[in-house]
Amino acid sequence: MLNRLRERLTDLLAHQNVCIFSANEPGGASGGGVWAVPVRYHSHGLAVDCLVPRWADASFYLEQNPQVLLIIRSSDGVPLRWLQYRGRAHILPAPDWPELLPKEDAQTPPETRYLAVRIQPTRIDLIDEAKGWGVLESLEF
Fold first, then answer.
1. How far apart are CA 134 and CA 128, in angstroms?
2. Rounded distance, CA 57 to CA 67, Å?
3. pTM above threshold 0.85
4. Are 32 and 26 in contact, with CB atoms under 8 Å apart?
């Protein structure tokens, strides 16, 4: 059962390339909050490499707390399926830019535009409306 769920999660991750990347803002006087940005990603099995825009200040948030949440919606149509992907992030010191970048003809080097972040999952929840609204299948690591 778990192997079949692992295969479904790996397949869903491999067939998408955009997600919402969120982290916690540091507390401070305002009490912190949630920070989120849409990003492109590339999966490696159940691990995910995200391209976070440099303007989003992700490195600051990840230094404070490396726990992140990704929301990944399947674009395969109806019924809806999406993943709630919790994990621990770390910045990639030497990313494989050709693998991560969308096919584009940019004039600036990718490292000036993006921060590459690898996320190792701690828990992945699959919500699949084909099985009924509110049915949740989870894989914890």
1. 8
2. 15
3. yes
4. yes
